[in-house]
Design brief:
The protein has helices at 7-16, 19-29, 36-40, 45-57, 66-72, 85-106, 120-131, 145-165, 197-201. The protein is mostly helical. Helix 6 packs antiparallel against helix 8. The radius of gyration is 20 Å and the shape is globular. The protein starts with 6 loop residues before the first helix and ends with a helix.
């Protein structure tokens, strides 16, 4: 853990405040057996587990930039319009985030001399992050200022842009028929006709 006044911690805290606590609670209230995601989809408990296992097996792209992800997924930029808002807007947003991160790091560390790699506290933090990665992870192997810039930019992009474009509270009201809910077991809250459950729920 970086000390509270460490420049990298000060840079990341506004984008990560209480994230662990929120995600921990969401693990129980959203994706637990019989909870909201289970009832809002057609997946069984085994199906939900299989979906999460599949995503974990794909974590080799977790630390990829939007451009790298698009290339790996063979996504045509013309296909983005109207269908993939996170990537469509995300490329520009990521560019802004990267400039912000680079400016912040450059005000503290000498990029040319790779002063990031000379900060013992930062090296320990980086190595602790490496230790938490899955075997297939593409997390950088060596701490350089450029590698740190990439990691912090991707982290901020994913934790802000990701929730802005998918996973936002009440996003389902745009298309309330997308996933009719059965919050009470065996009883669809939209009576099977109006498809208004998500809108009514929120």
């Amino acid at each position: 853990t970086l000390r509270p006044d460490h420049p990298v911690r000060r840079l990341t805290v506004p984008h990560s405040f209480r994230t662990n606590s929120i995600n921990h609670k969401a693990a129980y209230s959203l994706v637990g057996d019989g909870e909201l995601v289970h009832r809002a989809t057609a997946l069984t408990s085994a199906g939900l587990k299989a979906a999460f296992d599949l995503r974990r097996s794909m974590e080799g792209d977790l630390w990829s930039t939007p451009d790298d992800r698009m290339t790996a997924q063979n996504v045509d930029a013309n296909d983005l319009v109207g269908y993939m808002p996170l990537l469509e807007d995300g490329k520009d947003f990521f560019g802004i985030v990267r400039k912000y991160v680079r400016a912040s790091l450059s005000s503290v560390y000498d990029y040319e001399a790779n002063a990031c790699g000379s900060d013992a506290e930062l090296v320990a933090f980086f190595e602790a992050m490496q230790a938490k990665q899955d075997a297939s992870s593409n997390f950088p192997a060596v701490l350089t200022c450029k590698a740190l810039e990439d990691v912090l930019s991707i982290f901020i992009y994913q934790s802000t842009g990701g929730h802005l474009h998918h996973g936002s509270l009440a996003a389902e009201i745009v298309d309330p028929c997308h996933a009719p809910w059965a919050v009470v077991k065996g009883k669809r809250t939209d009576d099977g006709k109006s498809c208004g459950a998500p809108r009514t729920f929120f």
